[in-house]
Design brief:
heterodimer, A: mainly alpha, 10 helices, B: 10 helices, 21% strand
């Protein structure tokens, strides 16, 4: 316990940054993922091409490389300066968005074609077909795979440790310099991640029960 | 390359055997004799390889004898201290030579040494697990670390310094660090924790390796790199057109040799070696850091 209570300052900052990257990345991934997922099923060919390119390009790049680009490449572009935490959120959000997009697309495919046809038949444009008819139904059936994506995102936050963000993945280096036993530190990090993942699983069950639909 | 090195190692061992018939084992030899061998791989001829070393009650030494090989933890990205030339496979630097000197005193020549690069954050664990026999690589002696491992030495004293771009006129010492000057160092290292604690307004960046920080400095992403001055001088010496070291060291770091905690016999042995081997220490220093301009004399061991 000394490892925790003797270094509360570091654990606090690390946990805060982990959660910051997680929530920031999750929000970004959800928004971007929705857009890209919709693009992949859109009737406009150019939108489908862009969506497909985005997913295949980013999803096939290792997360470390995406981080590498944001942390080392972005500052060279002469754009406004951003902190490494923000750059980390961008990297992980843009990366995870590809998975969200694919989960959404899978969810869209579970909605019977007749639903979309009926919506179009009453004169709804594509935007309203998606937001009013398809996505609400699709979203219900993708809760479990979506949570898996977020659990992966949570654990992926540790990659940011190699890129100058003090989060739970980086705390071992700090504490080993303060003379703490590295294995004990890692055990505590693992415990924290298990607790966070349990919270996410609980949220998943809650949403599943709440949004259950009769088929 | 491997084969030539092995051959060279055998040659050195043979030469050392011949030399042993004339000298007392472990006695300091003429440092000048080593200069001729600088081009050869793993030159350790300027200290004699001891024979028939007896070290009672040292579990580390028992393990070394059993596998007939010394496993030493080092750094390999710190020019002048612990550096691996990836093109030639040759290891150079002050720390590496100190490590060789210890191995030679234990009776093991270059061909019986296995170097392992171990990152700062993994050092205690590597020693505790017995992955390495001892660690020589800018390893500061601290009380907290002594709870897990033991130190021999110190064999070198330096302090935290600053490395900046050669054309940077704004940063002359740590007092010039502001909210506009990003400082970089290795993740979690003592120097970066110093900056975080004592200069909370100064933005920091941390990467696993100091070399990544130096890259960031060269590209203008950070304005200063901080760590022990000895390390920084190595980088500045490698690229004097673009890098320079500024200010006086503003902390004191005492480098020791990391050992298993229960091995008082080996600790005693290495401390005695440091105390008696002033000439060799000086020769190692002159060879690796002598031209850098830093002035350091051999510290007395604790």
């Amino acid at each position: 316990m000394d490892v925790i209570f003797g270094n509360l300052d570091l654990w606090g900052e690390a946990l805060r940054n982990t959660l910051l990257i997680f929530f920031g990345g999750a929000v970004l991934a959800l928004i971007l993922g929705f857009v890209v997922g919709a693009m992949r099923v859109a009737p406009v060919p150019i939108a489908r091409v862009v969506g497909t390119l985005y997913v295949n390009l980013i999803r096939n790049t290792p997360l470390t490389l995406v981080f590498f680009f944001f942390i080392f490449g972005y500052p060279q572009l002469g754009l406004p300066k951003l902190s490494t935490t923000v750059l980390g959120i961008l990297a992980i959000g843009i990366y995870t968005a590809t998975y969200v997009a694919e989960v959404i697309r899978a969810g869209i495919n579970t909605v019977p074609v007749g639903q979309a046809e009926a919506a179009r038949a009453i004169g709804l444009p594509f935007g309203q077909v998606m937001t009013l008819v398809i996505l609400p139904q699709a979203f219900r059936s993708v809760v479990p795979p979506m949570m898996s994506v977020f659990i992966a995102l949570l654990k992926n936050t540790t990659v940011a440790a190699g890129f100058s963000v003090l989060e739970l993945g980086a705390i071992r280096s700090f504490l080993s310099e303060r003379g703490e036993n590295a294995l004990v530190v890692l055990l505590w990090v693992a415990v924290i991640f298990v607790v966070l993942v349990l919270l996410l699983s609980w949220l998943q069950r809650y949403l599943e029960n709440k949004w259950r639909i009769a088929r | 390359m491997r084969r030539t090195r092995t051959l060279a190692g055998i040659g050195i061992a043979a030469a050392a055997l011949l030399a042993l018939t004339a000298c007392n084992s472990g006695s300091p030899s003429d440092p000048g004799a080593g200069t001729g061998g600088d081009e050869g791989g793993g030159d350790s001829t300027w200290f004699e390889v001891a024979s028939d070393v007896q070290l009672e009650g040292s579990p580390t030494f028992d393990a070394i004898q059993k596998r007939d090989k010394v496993v030493i933890g080092v750094k390999e990205d710190q020019p002048g201290l612990g550096f691996l030339d990836v093109t030639t496979g040759e290891r150079t630097g002050f720390d590496v030579d100190i490590a060789r000197w210890i191995a030679a005193s234990l009776g093991y020549d270059e061909d019986k040494i296995e170097f392992k690069a171990i990152a700062s954050a993994n050092r205690e664990q590597a020693i505790v697990n017995g992955d390495i026999d001892y660690y020589v690589g800018t390893y500061s002696i601290t009380d907290k670390r002594k709870e897990q491992i033991a130190f021999a030495g110190p064999y070198f004293i330096t302090g935290q310094g600053l490395l900046v771009a050669a054309d940077n006129e704004d940063i002359k010492s740590e007092a010039d660090l502001t909210a506009d000057t990003t400082v970089c160092s290795a993740t979690g290292s003592t120097p970066i924790q110093n900056i975080r604690d004592n200069y909370p307004d100064v933005p920091t960046k941390e990467f696993d390796l100091y070399s990544a920080c130096v890259e960031a400095l060269l590209s203008g992403e950070v304005q200063a790199v901080t760590t022990d001055q000895a390390i920084l001088i190595g980088y500045a010496a490698q690229d004097p057109d673009n890098l320079k070291v500024v200010g006086e060291p503003f902390t004191e770091e005492r480098y020791g040799v990391g050992l298993a905690k229960d091995d008082a016999a080996l600790q005693e042995f290495i401390n005695t070696m440091f105390t008696d081997g002033g000439d060799i220490w000086q020769a190692i220093f002159d060879k690796n850091l002598g031209t850098s301009g830093i002035e350091v004399s051999q510290p007395t061991v604790d």
